[in-house]
Amino acid sequence: MDNKILFSKYRNKPDIKGTKTYKVTRIVLKTEAAAVRPKAKITLSFAKFLKAGKILLIAGAAAGLGYAVFTGVDRLNNSPEFEVKEVKVKGNKYVSKNEILAIAKVETRRNMFGVKLKDVQSRLKGNPQFKGAAVNRVFPGTVEIEVTERDPVAYLGENKLYQADAEGITFPAIKSFFHGKRLYVFTGINISLSEVGKKTTSKSLKQALAMVEKLETKGVPYLNDVMAVDVPCPEELSLVVQNTKQVYKLGEGNWDEKIDKLSCLLKSINERKKDIAYVDLRFRDEAVVSFKNNKAN
Q1: Which of 1, 45, 51, 231 might form a disulfide with 204, Cβ 3.0–4.6 angstroms?
Q2: b vs e for 129-167, b when ≥16 Cβ sit within 10 Å of the residue's Cβ?
Q3: How far is the CA of 291 from the CAs of 39, 65, 269, 271, in angstroms?
Q4: Segment 89-108, tens digit of pLDDT
Q5: Whole-number Å distance between alpha carbons of 127 and 132
Q6: Is the same domain home to 245 and 280?
Q7: What CA–CA distances, in Å, run from 175 to 91, 181, 185, 255?
Q8: Residue 276: which CATH number?
Q9: Does residue 7 fall inside a structural domain?
């Protein structure tokens, strides 16, 4: 204890019966620490009161804002003003708008915010006919689709018709009409379903695509009627004039030299060009020309 007993005083106090008892009187002096200890007081300063008021005000504002956002979002999601009224398609040259809409599956008359743009974009990008696709909302009621199509250079496929672009990606043949575009036909090359939409690993297809690029780059007038490239194997690559069934056998490699030689040959026998059955340039130092009357030179 903090209190100290200074002294005790004993004195006799006679009992009623005459017996002696002692009563102790104690004088207690409080220590300095005990004497100055303040009593606990509960006080609330103005600063604390102001801080508590601010917290309550912020909480109330947050609750009000949350309610406003909730009701606003609910109104937007159900407002007829934001229904999909039109789906626009941009960037398509070969695939028709109806075909693109069938792939995209965007429902009209539903709320704009209910259209999942990433899902629509994934469906379009999942189709090998497209290199890319972008989908956006244009308020108040339009969904805009912009596609980047693969540019086909040739048809191919023995069992089913496919197309290939210059990168060697194959995809199902596009039904649309190609205005003024020259498309070759690759024969002797078969494509399996597992290869569709992927970059080709076929050496024959790579050879055919390289030959088409060479023909387009050189722009040989006497080969403008070539519409088919036959590649049963890379060593047997041939150019085919489909209307007359004439065949120009080039084989593998040295194409610049062979194409120049073929062009000069066709120019020199221009009058008899239509009678050619085939020209074989697979041999390094000679060209074999066979005419339709089965005479070879």
Answers
A1: 231
A2: bbeebbbeeeeebebebebebbebbbbbbeeeebbbbee
A3: 127, 88, 11, 13
A4: 999 988 999 999 999 999 88
A5: 9
A6: yes
A7: 17, 14, 15, 33
A8: 3.40.50.11690
A9: no
The reported pTM is: 0.68
Number of other CB atoms surrounding residue 84 within 10 Å: 19
Any idea how long the chain is?
297
Alpha-helix residue ranges (DSSP H) falling in 13-151? 32-36, 46-78, 97-104, 117-125
For 175, the token pair is 């039904």
Residue 178 and residue 226 in one domain? yes
Residue of 190, 182, 188, 181 whose CA lies nearest to 162: 190
User: Hey, what amino acid is at 43?
Assistant: T
In tens, the pLDDT along 158-167 reads 778 899 999 9
| Tokens 């597992």 found at | 194
**Domain with 89 in it:** 81-149
Contact 239, 228 (CB under 8 A): yes
Q: Tokens 């398609």 — which residue?
A: 89
Of 250, 256, 246, which Cα lies nearest the Cα of 291? 246
Same domain, 131 and 236: no
Pairing type for strands 152-156 and 184-187 reads: parallel
Judge if the upstream peptide bond of residue 140 is cis by omega within 30 degrees of 0: yes
The verdict on 230 and 244 lying in the same domain is yes
State both tokens at 247.
Answer: 């065949």
Give per-residue pLDDT as tens, 209-261. 999 999 988 888 888 889 999 999 989 999 999 888 899 999 998 999 999 99
* Euclidean distance between CA atoms 145 and 104, whole angstroms: 9
Q: Are residues 196 and 279 in the same domain?
A: yes
The verdict on 139 and 202 lying in the same domain is no
The tens digit of pLDDT for each residue in 39-63 reads: 555 555 656 666 666 677 777 666 6
